[in-house]
Design goal:
GO terms for molecular function: FAD binding; oxidoreductase activity. There is one protein chain. The chain has 497 residues and is α+β, with helices and mostly antiparallel strands. Helix content is 34%, strand content 19%. The strands form 4 sheets. Strands 12, 13, 14, 15, 16, 17, 18 and 19 form an 8-stranded antiparallel β-sheet that branches. It has a 5-stranded antiparallel β-sheet with strand order 5-6-10-8-9. Helix 8 (242-254) runs antiparallel to helix 13. The protein starts with 9 loop residues before the first helix and ends in a 17-residue tail after the last helix. 48% of the residues are buried.
Length: 497
């Protein structure tokens, strides 16, 4: 494990029995887990390369219990790591040896559905797919749809600002959350946003979505639901080169067409997905695009023909249009099963998440192949082509000494490349521990200190999910200091309060 986490506090570990006893007084019954073997399921999230059992896990069922847990931990100086379904791919829910892990799986109820205002109020443990299942009988759905939607929770989606194959047109989690109830580290319960659109004041809701469990624990989420489009059809387009597919993506967007989804896979990913779902993906192509258009029937038909013409102009060799809803869902089944499919061809894989300008796609994929040869590790590429969000899957075997280290170095080079070409370190998986030490590649020290000041405003004692996101975590008192030189403060003309 090359990621270095904060050293455990020996004083806190010595008080473990007292901590367990206090937690059991708040969450009785089976809600507190302290047995070493029973804690094993919590030792990692979806980034399984890094493992660390928590000191203790607690599974509250009510907002009041969460409030009491945090208030007690705050008073006693005990760190807390929030956890949803554990599908995070950046190590955002990686436990600490001296921290209480707060699992939100029991917050699994849909509390209210308001079709007139087109919203649903759900607890954070409700799975992403369950929101759509709760409203689909009335012709509605929840738009963000990560590949892990059958398992990932809404609370985790809020923490990581998750996307999905349809985020190009309908936005990520931040564009589909109207409000949250959240418990602060000192136990205070607050509400941000709500049923209304665009509440007045600072956009604190926008700060919380994507904050990776570092500002508070969300106990309720109000999400936007949308009426299902009148129709949707998908195109399966094969190309003899990755460059042709990348140019097609750029040309579709340049033509003013915003598909509901536009995904891309390269040859290794195509073959793995087809072997997994047997849907009829072409196996003689180097790149495959899945382009979905939705809306009224006339609009879909018009746009489909425009996309097909653009694809042919970029050298497509195969073009298949879904004939019915079952076939359309089949096209997506392979893409959404790409991660588990790749898991069948290698003992382990390291899933990266970086975002680049669309026009740099062919260049970046070519350099990823060079890295593959340099590190002698295979890579399969699946990604949200429409918004430039890459998901290279680096294949390795953790049982072979040195392969994990090479996979990490390979992934680091990919992320540095994303920033170099004008992109960013993450699109939807978050920073967590995986990208933490690469933050200075993208941000200056002043940038990082400003971000940490925001963290300090919510969590002054730095007890919530420490060791994540920031490569060097300063004490809040350090960040708040003002340098006075010879009695003169900086910018003396600015009014001070």
């Amino acid at each position: 494990m090359s990621i270095v986490m904060p050293p455990p506090d020996a004083g806190v570990l010595a008080r473990r029995a007292d901590i367990v006893r206090a937690l059991r007084s708040i969450v009785p019954g089976e809600g507190v887990i302290d047995d070493v073997d029973a804690l094993r399921p919590y030792e990692s999230d979806g980034l399984t390369a890094y493992r660390q059992p928590p000191m203790v896990a607690v599974l509250p069922e009510t907002t009041e219990q969460v409030s009491r847990i945090l208030a007690w931990c705050h008073a006693e100086g005990v760190k807390v790591v929030p956890r949803g379904s554990g599908t995070s791919l950046s190590g955002g829910a990686l436990p600490l040896a001296d921290a209480v892990l707060v699992g939100m799986a029991k917050f699994n109820r849909v509390l209210d559905i308001d079709y007139d205002d087109r919203l649903a109020v759900v607890q954070p443990g409700v799975t992403n797919l369950a929101v759509t299942q709760a409203v689909e009988d009335r012709g509605f759905y929840y738009a963000p749809d990560p590949s892990s939607q059958i398992a990932c929770s809404i609370g985790g989606n809020v923490a990581e600002n998750s996307g999905g194959v349809h985020c190009l047109k309908y936005g990520l989690t931040t564009n589909n959350v109207l409000g949250v109830e959240m418990v602060m580290m000192d136990g205070e319960i607050i509400r941000l946003g709500g049923r209304q659109l665009d509440p007045a004041g600072l956009d604190l809701l926008g700060v919380v979505v994507g904050s990776e469990g570092m500002l508070g624990i969300v106990t309720e989420v109000t999400v936007r639901i949308l009426p299902k489009p009148e129709g949707a059809r998908a195109l399966l387009i094969g190309f003899p080169s990755v460059e042709g597919a990348g140019n097609c993506v750029a040309d579709v967007i340049a033509a003013g067409i915003i598909p509901a989804g536009m995904e891309m896979m390269d040859r290794p990913a195509i073959h793995a997905a087809e072997a997994f779902v047997n849907i009829g993906y072409p196996l003689d192509v180097e790149a495959l695009l899945i382009v979905e258009l939705d809306g009224v029937a006339a609009e879909c038909d018009h746009l489909i023909h425009k996309v097909a013409d653009i694809a042919r102009a970029n050298g497509s060799t195969t073009l298949r249009l879904s004939s019915d809803e079952q076939e359309r869902m089949g096209f997506w089944a392979g893409r959404k099963a790409a991660f588990p499919a790749v898991g069948r061809i290698a003992p382990d894989f390291y899933c990266m998440d970086g975002t680049i300008p669309r026009r740099r796609l062919p260049e970046v994929l070519e350099k990823i192949q060079k890295f593959s040869r340099q590190y002698d590790l295979e890579v399969a590429n699946v990604f949200h082509a429409g918004d430039g969000n890459l998901h290279p899957l680096i294949l390795y075997d953790a049982n072979i000494p040195g392969q994990l280290d090479r996979a990490e170095a390979f992934g680091s080079d990919i992320l540095k490349l994303c920033v170099e070409v004008g992109g960013v370190l993450t699109g939807e998986h978050g920073v967590g521990v995986e990208k933490r030490d690469l933050m200075p590649v993208m941000f200056s020290e002043a940038d990082l200190q400003q971000q940490q000041r925001l963290k300090c405003a919510f969590d002054p004692e730095l007890l919530l999910n420490p060791g994540k996101v920031f490569p060097t975590l300063h004490r809040c008192a350090e960040l708040g200091r003002m340098h006075v030189h010879h009695g003169a403060v900086p910018f003396p003309d600015i009014p001070r309060f």
